[in-house]
Amino acid sequence: MTHLQAGLSPETLEKARLELNENPDTLHQDIQEVRDMVITRPDIGFLRTDDAFILRFLRARKFHHFEAFRLLAQYFEYRQQNLDMFKSFKATDPGIKQALKDGFPGGLANLDHYGRKILVLFAANWDQSRYTLVDILRAILLSLEAMIEDPELQVNGFVLIIDWSNFTFKQASKLTPSMLRLAIEGLQDSFPARFGGIHFVNQPWYIHALYTVIRPFLKEKTRKRIFLHGNNLNSLHQLIHPEILPSEFGGMLPPYDMGTWARTLLDHEYDDDSEYNVDSYCMPVKEVEKELSPKSMKRSQSVVDPTVLKRMDKNEEENMQPLLSLD
């Protein structure tokens, strides 16, 4: 075991060896091979290339050198293409702070039975008058940056549960294709985290329709890890034990405290509320569209394809069966 593996338990070390192809005898050589590729992309400013930083990208791509380098390049390229998102990239930034305090994201105290960190989002908590969807994305990315410092989570990864209860059609209308593309690029394509599952619960018909539209833009691996449970919490409990879930998800623990993770990041500044004008943020969603790469999803004024909505009405919400994609 090298010093780079010092933070791993014996069980996680074995998991890294078996599942991620991590070999302590070749670890430094693996890292150097990725580092040597940096010269092939002079258009990108690689602000960090230290051993510990590159290692998280190797773990995220199971020690496939080129795939790890591509993820590393996309990580910094995403930040170059969306500079305004990262100008004030800290927990005390007013927009990020408001999102964090409303539970974007939340983090449960207990890991799941695979050692994964369970993140939770309560979509209806979004207050459009106080912060933007971009602020929520920034808060999630900042939180992941803090959590991924833990080598155990680099190996074991994360699980995400999104509760769509009381999320209105008006709120959903803000989930434009360009906004969703920005999130997909930032989370799926440009961040060194392993997501073992993304669970939708209590999703209304229009969120199901929205997922139908964005599904082709997700990687096959990502699609296999998305579970649409609807109101059937029993199917959620088959994958995440209710003993570690709060009551909102039919679990045995008390209701989730939305400020739990925010207090961890903000510490004594949690209660220091400063005024934040949501209109003053320098990168509204309509500007995000201009920043997206040519590969981006085609712009649309509507949230979903009208032909999809035509085939679905509100009565379908009650009749819709949860869709489970078991990996």
TrEMBL record:
CDD domains: SEC14. The keyword Cell inner membrane does not apply. It is found in: Cytoplasmic vesicle, Clathrin-coated vesicle; Early endosome membrane; Golgi apparatus, trans-Golgi network membrane. GO terms for cellular component: clathrin-coated vesicle; early endosome membrane; trans-Golgi network. It is a peripheral membrane protein. Residues 96-257 form the CRAL-TRIO domain. Residues 289-327 are annotated as: Disordered. One of its GO terms (molecular function) is phosphatidylinositol bisphosphate binding. GO terms for biological process: lysosome organization. Keywords: Cytoplasmic vesicle, Endosome, Golgi apparatus, Lipid-binding, Membrane. Forms a complex with clathrin heavy chain and gamma-adaptin. PANTHER family: ALPHA-TOCOPHEROL TRANSFER PROTEIN-RELATED, CLAVESIN-2. Required for normal morphology of late endosomes and/or lysosomes in neurons. Binds phosphatidylinositol 3,5-bisphosphate (PtdIns(3,5)P2). This is Clavesin-2. It comes from Chrysochloris asiatica. The gene is CLVS2.
